[in-house]
């Protein structure tokens, strides 16, 4: 079943890309879930859509931009979205949780207007929304490899600081860890991972690859390190199984990956008894 | 019901828009004080699953009586809203995980169903992002009927809902059944979401619930004002959005949200100027 993935170049690319995002997304997801920021990934992925739409619109009017990969603009928007979320949290001091739905809906709304200005309601958009097995080109593959390398290096460098921040923010900032720059760096990492995963999983489903494996891992793990191991394991499993099955069944890979994750999660909930 | 046959497609869309612009912020105000605005996001994505299931059923099970996919959507969002409560109990210390789980499984399942149902992309885009020109006579009836039911429920239980939203403990002590009211709340959210979907689009219903209220809470001085201003902003964004989208030929849902965002930015700026001024005078 999996052999066909090595016979065609574009399938090999998407398989390798899938392996990379199956590692990256749950890994960053663990930090997000523990810091109770799981929803931010939703907001950031939706704002990525506006970025992509904006890039498509620019490409239509300025040929200079048409050669540009829309993913770059998506990343810029997603990092900008992370900054605005922080600002909104200050504006709504009593209703901090409002920041995320505002950005989430604004992201989609702006995205839709850009798309319809660019006459972009076509198949391409559907691939961006729900992912595609065949969308990975050599260029995308190179870019996602670069992102993986960057994020990996950052995790190795700042693991301790992020770990500390996740569990005890107060203590961490008292003991002299620069909280704001580290948080910003983390958000940039999350934005990068979202942009990297988007092509295969689809914008609307990226966040599930970051939260569902972690939610399942929480039921099994007996420590923070184990949580990483289980999440990455579930993530890889779902991505590979999802890619292979979606190719053979001719359905969207994002949907398949997420549903496999849901199955893993439901099984985990029923097989373990403890409540978190 | 004679008059409903004589409406043009634009009039139908505008009437539907007015109903939605009224009810979404009204519900949003309650969601805001209960701190669960994000629930509307999750349920709208579940509604998408229901709609895709409805479309797929209509295609494959030909022997079934033809039904509007919106009803299946309503059913799914009802089930989803009860499910959210259940998941909150399971992940007691990580309650906010319930929402992403529901949200992503909703979208995931609908992605699969969409690829199975070989409908045209345009039809899906209408459901996802809304379109004012596709509001049919039956849709308008559905919207008005669900709108009336939702409004009736809100009106009848206004006091109970208010007390449970602001002080759940006190409400419990004074003999209000919190559990029953939570279910009522879930039903209300499901109703409002499934009725708004046709005009604003599934991905944007959450915005209709959140943005007007986020703007009104900047300026309002009481809960009544939050509701009143919220409805005003809601109607303004719907009508403004419809007008602009008709002029520029842009997707209706997107334009409604853009107007909502502009209103939000204006109210944040007004608040800033106002606060600075009062500080200036008091010093």
Number of discrete domains of chain A? 1
What does the average pLDDT of chain A come to?
Answer: 86
The strand count of chain B comes to: 0
- Interface with most residues: A-B, 58 and 58 residues
Q: How far do the termini of chain B sit from each other?
A: 62 Å
Task: Assign an overall shape of chain B.
Answer: globular
Q: Assign the CATH topology of chain A.
A: ABC transporter involved in vitamin B12 uptake, BtuC
Q: Spans of chain A of 5+ residues with little confidence (pLDDT < 50)?
A: none
Q: Which CATH first-tier class of chain A would you pick? A: Mainly Alpha
Share of helical residues of chain A: over 70%
Characterize the main sheet of chain B: none
Q: Termini of chain A, distance in Å? A: 38 Å
Assigned CATH superfamily of chain B:
ABC transporter involved in vitamin B12 uptake, BtuC
CATH class of chain B: Mainly Alpha
Query: How many helices of chain B in DSSP terms?
Result: 13
Order of helices and strands of chain A: HHHHHHHHHHHHH
Structural class of chain B: mainly alpha
| Cα-atom radius of gyration of chain B | 20 Å
Mean pLDDT of chain B: 83
Main location (chain B): membrane
InterPro entries (chain B): ABC_BtuC-like (IPR037294), ABC_TroCD (IPR001626)
Subcellular location (chain B): Cell membrane; Membrane
Family (chain B): Belongs to the ABC-3 integral membrane protein family.
């Amino acid at each position: 079943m999996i052999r066909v993935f090595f016979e065609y170049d574009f399938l090999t690319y998407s398989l390798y890309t899938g392996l990379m995002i199956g590692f990256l997304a749950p890994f960053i997801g663990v930090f997000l879930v523990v810091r109770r920021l799981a929803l931010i990934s939703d907001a950031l992925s939706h704002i990525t859509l506006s970025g992509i739409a904006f890039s498509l619109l620019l490409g239509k009017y300025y040929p200079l931009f048409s050669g540009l990969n829309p993913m770059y603009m998506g990343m810029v928007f997603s990092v900008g979205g992370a900054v605005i979320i922080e600002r909104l949290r200050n504006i709504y001091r009593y209703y901090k949780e409002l920041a995320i739905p505002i950005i989430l809906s604004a992201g989609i709304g702006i995205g839709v207007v850009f798309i319809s200005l660019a006459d972009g309601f076509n198949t391409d958009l559907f691939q961006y929304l729900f992912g595609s097995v065949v969308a990975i080109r050599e260029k995308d593959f190179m870019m996602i490899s670069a992102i993986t390398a960057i994020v990996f290096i950052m995790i190795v460098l700042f693991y301790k600081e992020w770990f500390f921040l996740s569990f005890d923010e107060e203590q961490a900032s008292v003991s002299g860890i620069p909280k704001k720059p580290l948080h910003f760096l983390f958000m940039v990492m999350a934005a990068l991972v979202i942009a990297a995963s988007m092509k295969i999983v689809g914008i609307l489903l990226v966040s599930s690859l970051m939260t569902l494996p972690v939610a399942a891992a929480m039921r099994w793990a007996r420590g923070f390190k184990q949580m990483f191991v289980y999440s990455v394991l579930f993530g890889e499993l779902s991505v590979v199984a999802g890619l292979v099955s979606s190719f053979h069944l001719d359905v969207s890979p994002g949907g398949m990956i997420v549903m496999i994750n849901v199955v893993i999660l439901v099984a985990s909930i029923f097989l373990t008894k403890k409540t978190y | 019901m004679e008059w409903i046959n004589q409406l043009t497609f634009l009039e139908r869309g505008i009437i539907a828009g007015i109903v939605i612009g009224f009810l979404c912020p009204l519900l949003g105000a309650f969601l805001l004080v209960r701190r669960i605005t994000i629930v509307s996001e999750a349920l709208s994505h579940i509604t998408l699953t229901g709609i895709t299931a409805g479309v797929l059923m209509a295609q494959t099970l030909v022997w079934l009586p033809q039904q509007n996919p919106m009803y299946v959507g309503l059913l799914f969002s009802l089930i989803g809203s009860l499910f959210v409560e259940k998941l909150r109990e399971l992940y007691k210390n990580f309650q906010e995980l319930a929402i992403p789980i529901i949200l992503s499984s909703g979208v995931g399942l609908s992605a699969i169903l969409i690829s199975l149902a070989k409908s045209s992309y345009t039809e899906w885009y209408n459901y996802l992002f809304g379109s004012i020109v596709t509001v049919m006579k039956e849709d308008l009836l559905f919207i008005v009927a669900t709108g009336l039911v939702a409004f009736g429920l809100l009106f009848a239980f206004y006091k109970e809902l208010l007390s449970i939203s602001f002080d759940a403990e006190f409400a419990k002590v004074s003999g209000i059944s919190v559990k029953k009211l939570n279910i009522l709340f879930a039903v209300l959210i499901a109703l409002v979401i499934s009725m708004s979907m046709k005009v604003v689009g599934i991905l944007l219903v959450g915005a209709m619930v959140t943005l007007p209220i986020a703007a009104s809470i900047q300026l309002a001085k009481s809960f009544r004002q939050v509701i009143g201003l919220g409805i005003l902003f809601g109607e303004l964004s719907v009508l403004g959005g419809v007008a602009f989208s008709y002029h520029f030929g842009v997707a209706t849902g997107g334009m409604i949200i853009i107007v909502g965002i502009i209103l939000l930015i204006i109210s944040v700026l007004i608040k800033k100027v106002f606060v600075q001024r009062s500080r200036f005078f008091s010093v």
